[in-house]
Here is the input.
Amino acid sequence: MKLLPIIFKRQLVSYACTPSTYVSIAAFLVLCAALGLHTNPWMEQNSSDLQVFFQLHPWLYLLLIPALSTQLWSDEHTLSLCNLMKTFPITAAEWVIGKFLAAWVVCGIALLFTFPIVLVANYVGTADNSVIASQFFSSWLLAGSYLSAGCFICVLTRQRGAVFLLTLGLLLTVSGLSSIVDAIDHQAPVWLIDSFISLNPLSRFDAIDNGKLTLRDSLYFISMILAFLSATTVTLNCKVS
Here is the structure.
């Protein structure tokens, strides 16, 4: 893992030099402000947390995550990643982890730009900052799990449009698990319904978003990230060999 920091810095520079990164983050922030502050009567609720604000993040990530995912492997496809890995002592795991961490940091920066809403919450009422911190953490974990899925899709195809659409489709399917559970309720076996609920990342996110930061829910997102990154590494190794 000696070259992992180099790959990480290189991918961060790539994001910093790409205009679409700023456009995606700007759109994410504008929609956060517009929907979180104006669509929902958050100010009138005098809430001690930002649950109404963070409930929008799973849907806003449908715009941000696919846009960031399309930039993960674009340069390497152009330069022939397989030849690079055969020429330089870089492992597939270093490529995957370094690029994923860079994209996850960009998501974290986008979340940090929403910090003024915390100042507003503390100014207009008595905010529970410990709950707000857990809500930020849960949103970042959710972004990481979505990004790991996008990273896996990126190694399956070279077309940016296909990566964007496939990532968006996968995230929409995951987001629709709650609707599937509601549709089959009282019609399917209990074990099947419980399985859908346990696999639904939004139900885990809602639990943490409510301020109930548990080790089980946190490990769920971490295990999802590790699973997708492992699948990405295996796929990349197969392509190189």
About this structure: The mean pLDDT is 76. Residues 4-240 form one domain.
